Amino acid sequence: MLLLPRIKVVKVHDYLKDRSLAEGTTVLVDRLWPRGVKKSELHLDCWLKEVAPSPELRAWFHHDPEKFSEFSQKYRVELAALADGGDDDTRILMELVEKSPITMLYAARDRSVNHAHVLAQWLAEQCARS
């Protein structure tokens, strides 16, 4: 679990076991629905698929820890392009962070080498600039 100003990052399966891990608005930030999780089980405020890495970047990265640094840089480029292009999901996420605390949920197996942490850091930086 990562905590940044107003942004928490929590693994979906941890959240299912202990909902008190969430604070504020709960947002799924994965492009794909988490395996083995019923939609009725996961009480979300929203699912913002487009803030997740592109399918091409996700396939290239393949959760390889050795590629994480380069993945992070490429993903930040994608996020900047989305924000500059007026992507709705990116705009919604940034508005949510500005209004209240959020908990971003992810389903990646690795708790530290995943896109949600990169996204949280990027969001925190965007909020600091505002």
Automatic annotation (TrEMBL):
InterPro entries: YeaO-like (IPR052552). It comes from the Bacteria. Pfam families: DUF488-N3i. This is DUF488 family protein. It comes from Corynebacterium poyangense.
